[in-house]
Amino acid sequence: MDKSPDAFRTISEAAEELDLPQHVLRFWETRFAQIKPLKRGGGRRYYRPQDIDLIKGIRHMLYDQGYTIKGVQKLLRDNGNQFIVAVGKGDVAAVEAIAQTKQAEAREKASDEEQLIGSPKVKPNKRFFGLGRGEGDGPVAADNSSLSRDNRALLQEALFDLLECKRLLDQVR
């Protein structure tokens, strides 16, 4: 008796459908966090149809395209599950659409970075850095205890630059 395409598969059924040994499926679960079969009592695994599609894509990338496990992990991280599923199905239109979306996101991110890192929009004045002539000539106006609009813009820009530096450092770690 054949199962419905929407039915869950046991590990043996999934292994047979994917032409993979069961131990490979268990190993890939440890390497790809995106593979999450439902586990029932006694540790029995049940694979959803979307799990099967994802594993087909991973199998295609590893066995047919020659990617390493780290390479497929990077593809999943950069492009998401749907990209790998589309590659596994041979859906060229979906792959191109996802690639175009990712390129648009990369262009948008690059334009955001250009806005954050660049020349200041406001020229710093000597008073901002405490180099004014009198005691009251610091970054805060003596009369109203608030920053001038120009100095506030400089501080905001410095904060954005520091946050971007922190983000880049966190990525390196």
From TrEMBL:
Residues 10-78 form the HTH merR-type domain. GO terms for biological process: regulation of DNA-templated transcription. Pfam families: MerR_1. Residues 128-147 are annotated as: Disordered. InterPro entries: DNA-bd_dom_put_sf (IPR009061), MerR-type_HTH_dom (IPR000551). One of its GO terms (molecular function) is DNA binding. This is MerR family transcriptional regulator. It comes from Nitratireductor indicus C115. The lineage of its organism: Bacteria, Pseudomonadati, Pseudomonadota, Alphaproteobacteria, Hyphomicrobiales.
